[in-house]
Amino acid sequence: MAKHFISLLLFVTYGIIYGQQKVPRDGKKIAKKFAMQVTEKNIKKTMSLLDASFKQVQLIGLLNNDTLAFLNKLFCDKNQGGTCVKFDEISKCTFKRVGKFTASNLDYAMAPVVFYVKTKNGITFEVNLMLVRYFSGGKKKFIYRIGGPVG
After folding, report:
1. Which alpha helices (H) appear in the chain, and where do they start and end?
2. What would the pLDDT profile of 119-145 be if each residue is shown by its tens digit?
3. Is the distance from CB of 43 to CB of 74 less than 8 angstroms?
4. What are phi and psi of 133, to 5 degrees?
5. For residue 31, is pLDDT > 70?
């Protein structure tokens, strides 16, 4: 009985430690950099901070490489009935917060990230995206990118 309890305790502890992890400074830096590039309307640098798999499915697969249509569908507020903000209508993008990584392994994980997007006419939208983490094995242990909804 004691063996089973210790095994269960270890399993639960492992799940807590590896199942949810705080996002380190490098991950938050990517989210802040993304917000800055969106505010500056730098399409090339904004796109470089987006997850490659997300772009492959959404941009190439569904939108036939229409970058502007892709960006226009990225900034949507589920609290406003899914209303999307056109990229060229954004006057300011601000990183607000990031949740914890949920991962079944350490090589790949995602964490919810929230941005506030203000339009040229003063309306602020809350946009929920994902911070994606990949194990790189290099000097920097992980690579971070921004991902979004698919479909």
Report:
1. 2-19, 25-39, 43-48, 52-55, 67-74
2. 999 999 999 999 999 888 777 788 999
3. no
4. -120, 130
5. yes
> Is it the case that residue 106 has pLDDT exceeding 90?
no
Q: Of 144, 148, 147, nearest to 28 (Cα)?
A: 144
CA 63 to chain centre: 20
DSSP letters spanning 92-115 = EEEEEEE--EE-SSSSEEEEEEEE
- Spatial CA neighbour of 87 closest among 60, 62, 59, 120: 120
Residue with tokens 């639960």: 12
Cβ neighbour number for residue 96 with a 10 Å cutoff: 12
Query: How much is the average pLDDT of 12-31?
Result: 72
User: Which tokens go with 70?
Assistant: 């892709």
Q: What is the pTM of this model?
A: 0.82
